[in-house]
Amino acid sequence: MRLLPSGSTAVLVELDDLDEVLALYAALVAAPPEGVTDIVPAARTVLLLTDPARTSLPAVAAAVRATTPDRSGRSSGELLEVPVSYDGEDLAEAAGLLGCNAAELVQRHTADEWTVAFCGFAPGFGYLTSASWTWDVPRRATPRTRVPAGAVALAGPFSGVYPRESPGGWQLIGRTGLVAFDLSREPAALLRPGVRVRFVPEPAR
Amino acid sequence: MTRSVTVLAPGPLCTVQDAGRPGLAATGVGRSGACDRASYRLANRLVGNPADAAVLEVTFGGLRLRADTDVVVVTTGARCPPAPAHNSPLELPAGRELTLGPPVAGLRTYVALRGGIDVPPVLGSRSTDLLSGLGPGAVRPGDVLPLGEPCLPMPGVDVAPVPEPTGDDLAVRVSPGPRWDWFTGAARDALLGSAYAVTGDSNRVGLRLAGRPLDRCENGELPSEGMARGALQVPPSGQPVLFLADHPVTGGYPVLAYVDDDDVDRCAQLRPGQRLLFRG
Q1: How far apart are CA B260 and CA B248, in angstroms?
Q2: Is the dihedral of CA A69, A73, A74, A75 positive or negative?
Q3: What SS3 state is found at B119?
Q4: Pairing between strand B241-243 and B250-251?
Q5: pLDDT tens, residue by residue, A48-92
Q6: What is the model's pTM?
Q7: What pLDDT digit, counting tens, does each position of A28-58 carry?
Q8: Least CA distance to B256: which residue of chain A?
Q9: How far from B164 is each of B39, B47, B267, B272, CA to CA, in Å?
């Protein structure tokens, strides 16, 4: 664990890999240090934002160093089932890039249990990873200007669900009726860091 | 009867802002809120509002509004004649208008109305986040803005003596960011020894700056990481971006340095063409 400076109100913790991020994030969320307003996990880091009126950066750094990572994080989160129609525009192409056929790609995508590692890009957009998903999927050479809400997609080691219509460069393999981000719901975001996900195939319409 | 004001003209950009949405960054929702937090806090204090009440953030003046009921109003931040209420609360009788011309210096004016603007909150905040699209959206001509009931006494302050935003170069304090060592010595010297001009592409997300390019010595790809307000992020062009209120929660370009949080408020008052000097 390396603590890196991030201005007068934040501390960035750099870790060796995503599993360490998930473990530290789970422990920090369970017992947030006093005065910390946000804990933001990412691929290899956890950022802590503070309220400078309530704490100091040395106090937060000491609290982080004293935190014991919670390594049960990947298996203990809430489990969400996401129904997917695997009829995405890029399904065949993505399978080709991975050297398999569409059916095999769907089988792997639904067999693995996924975990939301972190969010970004847009409110409620989760980056999902899976321990047994070893593929690395190239992004589209030219991003789409419009990806529909509910698109289920792949990029790099990640899978994701577009929470609303937006531009995007991920490979689209299917779609879900699940609304990943809904302001009228509490919590608005379904795909929060630590949430476990299982994709369930629906018959193609 | 609901207290309200009616917006006759919003100017180039007018949004409702409050203290923002802390606590949701892990779900991809940034804090947003007033760009110049010090001026925002002062505005609420001067009209006896709670610290997190919603106000108008007016970009480069141009706002005209009419009081539908008697209301106490104040402006802070960039002073916009002929509006008479700058740093000095004023009773605006029902039917009377408040007009903000172009600011004398600075960019953003905060208009606090006693009781606070009571539009429906989104995820706990009335702020408009121009990056994520959350919140009520930019204020439009004809909008009727409901006001809350005053719940605190007036502070009994006639004028708050605060310095006006500068129209000249602005010197701010910086400290090394998490990727300070990804940049060449020449880049660090350039940052601390030369001036960076604010360009016209700047907005509530960030100030896009132009100056001596900040070159990297470490050219690996950076996995996206969390970023805070005040980050000086350097894209491949070498021209830095200073993150303001609506900055993305995470970013994939390295952060060379951070501007001190208090100084970010003053950066939020810079106009295109003004220059920033970074002091270590």
Answers
A1: 18
A2: positive
A3: coil
A4: unpaired
A5: 999 999 999 999 999 999 999 998 756 667 899 999 999 999 999
A6: 0.94
A7: 999 999 999 999 999 999 999 999 999 999 9
A8: A6
A9: 10, 19, 13, 17
Quick one: pLDDT at residue A204? 58
| Model pLDDT for residues A12-21, shown as the tens digit of each residue | 999 999 999 9
Question: Can you tell me the distance from the alpha carbon of B216 to that of B22, in angstroms, rounded to the nearest whole number?
Answer: 32
Q: Would you say how long chain A is, in residues?
A: 205
Which of A17, A48, A49 to mutate to probe the B interface, most B CBs <10 Å?
A49
Fill in the amino acid letter for A189: A
Whether A12 and B226 lie within 8 Å, measured CB to CB? yes
Chain A interface, Cβ < 8 Å to B: 4-10, 12, 14, 37-47, 49, 51-52, 118-126, 183, 187-189, 192-193
**Residue B65 near residue B6 (C-beta atoms within 8 A):** yes
**ipTM reported for the complex, 2 dp:** 0.95
- CA separation for the pair A185, A191 (Å, rounded): 13
